[in-house]
Design brief:
By secondary structure, this protein is an alpha+beta fold. It is built from six helices and three strands; from the N terminus they run H-H-H-E-E-H-E-H-H. The protein folds into two domains: about 60 residues, DnaA, N-terminal domain (GMP Synthetase, Chain A, domain 3); about 35 residues, no CATH class. A hairpin with a 2-residue loop joins strand 1 and strand 2. About 15% of the residues are buried.
Length: about 140
C-alpha cells in the first residue's frame, strides 16, 4: 500500500519535488537521530537544510541550549555521515510534544538481587517484604 502510494506521488510531475524534499528531510532526521544524544534525538525535529545550515526544532529552551552547545560536534558527525551541513540553527517550538519514550524495565544485577533477598528475610511479614522478594526473584524493578 505504501509502495503504491509512493509510486503514485513520484509519478506526478507536480508532486515529485515535494516527494524528493520529504525523502531528504526523512534522511536528515535519521542522520540527526543517529548523531545526537538519545534524549535530544527523540525530542528534536529536523525542519530543513538551506545553504548548508540545518534547522532543528527543540521543544523547550533547555533542549535548545544543549543542542546549541553540541552543535559543532554534531556538524562534524553529520559531515562524517555524508550530510552537507556547515552549521546548525536551533528554533524553540513551544507546544511541540515529542512522542513518549517507552519505558524499559531495569534489570538488577545478581549482587543486587542477593542483597534484596537477604534484606527481605530480615523483615517481618509485610507488603514490603513480599514486594522485595518478588523484585529479587524476577530481577526487574
Amino acid at each position: 500500500m505504501a509502495q503504491r502510494f509512493g509510486s503514485l506521488l513520484g509519478s506526478n510531475a507536480e508532486l515529485r519535488p515535494l516527494v524528493s524534499r520529504a525523502q531528504a528531510l526523512s534522511t536528515l532526521q535519521r542522520h540527526f537521530a543517529n548523531a545526537a544524544p538519545a534524549y535530544l534525538a527523540q525530542s528534536c525535529t529536523v525542519l530543513g537544510l538551506q545553504f548548508g545550515t540545518l534547522t532543528v526544532a527543540a521543544p523547550n529552551s533547555t533542549a535548545a541550549a544543549k543542542l546549541r552547545q553540541l552543535a559543532p560536534e554534531l556538524v562534524v558527525l553529520l559531515q562524517n555521515r555524508g550530510c552537507e551541513v556547515s552549521g546548525i540553527r536551533v528554533k524553540v517550538q513551544v507546544g511541540y510534544e515529542p512522542a513518549p519514550r517507552p519505558q524499559q524495565p531495569r534489570e538488577l544485577s545478581r549482587t543486587a538481587r542477593n542483597a534484596l533477598s537477604q534484606f527481605s528475610e530480615s523483615l517481618a511479614d509485610s507488603p514490603l517484604k513480599f514486594a522485595l522478594k518478588k523484585i529479587a526473584k524476577t530481577g526487574k524493578s
